[in-house]
Amino acid sequence: MNKKVLVLEDEDDIRGFILINLKRGGYQVIEAKTGEEALQIIDQEEGLYVAILDIMLPGISGLEVCQYLRKKDEAVGIIMLTAKTQEVDKITGLYTGADDYMTKPFSPGELVARVDVLHRRVELLKGKKDDIIFSGPFSFNRQSRTLLKNEQEIELTQIEYKLMECFFDHPGIALCRDEILNKAWGDNFYGDGKVVDVNIRRLRKKIEEDPSDPKYILTEWGYGYRWGISP
Ligand code: CA
User: 3-state class of 98 per DSSP?
Assistant: First the structure.
């Protein structure tokens, strides 16, 4: 996976200098010259773990970008760049969304080291969250490979586990039989969609309140199945 870092800095020299050092540190850098540009990137980019935001910018300030980003993502790591020490009050006082700050001029080694620390922290936070998926009365734990319904464990076969994983990864989305077949049985399995139907029937008996009138694994006629609880 790419380690993406957003760098917002209007001064080309400083941005270039940060970019070179982060790339050397193994990061993929997404550059923004203005706050406006940064907001757009934040809305579009997936998997942003760390952002380095300069405060003094011609338009929208780095502090506003910081607030926006924090509101959108509680876990993301944010480092503010300041030119003057008095700005530190603003970062540590009113705008507490930032995790760290650096006063210009700073050493590149120090910056990369701080990005490393934040990145590791965010990776842990996000990783933990993704290991357990919650959906209605269910919780699905990838680490212990267990499925709970109302806190009660439901015993699953290997294939049933894979089927549930498939649904939890695509909640509310209709999946065709071939797709389910590939995901649960693997690409090398030569069989038809009937095996999917058989296993879904068995799975419904385990997880549905009324298997003849399913609420969770819904049939998409002539196509496949859909997890009935939208995210
Ligand atoms: Ca600036």
Answer: coil
